[in-house]
Amino acid sequence: MHLPSDPATQKLLGFLLHVPFLPPAGGNQREQDRLKAQKKAAANAKKPKESAATLAKRKEADAEILRAKQKKKEEEKAASAGGASSSKG
């Protein structure tokens, strides 16, 4: 490599050749979000997919549980309403 003979230019070029190039400070939020998204995608890829039949069975079981809870609540409400009317008399 040929350096110019001017001392000022030589000094400047020598300085520039020895200064390490640093990434800009801060501003790495995009990189952090990208890494987080990669981890999340990798975790989701490992999970087994739920088939349509399994999904339908699970939904039906959940609905049955909710119907049973609702029925129990209605029975308790009816029992408390029946008990309150008899105590007034």
UniProtKB/TrEMBL annotation:
Entry-linked InterPro entries: SERF-like_N, SERF1/2-like
Region annotated Disordered, chain positions: 22-89
Feature: compositional bias, Low complexity: 79-89
Pfam families assigned: SERF-like_N
Small EDRK-rich factor-like N-terminal domain sequence ranges: 27-60
Amino acid composition bias (Basic and acidic residues), ranges on this chain: 57-78
Segments traversing the membrane: none
Family, similarity comment: Belongs to the SERF family.
The protein's name in its UniProt record: Small EDRK-rich factor-like N-terminal domain-containing protein
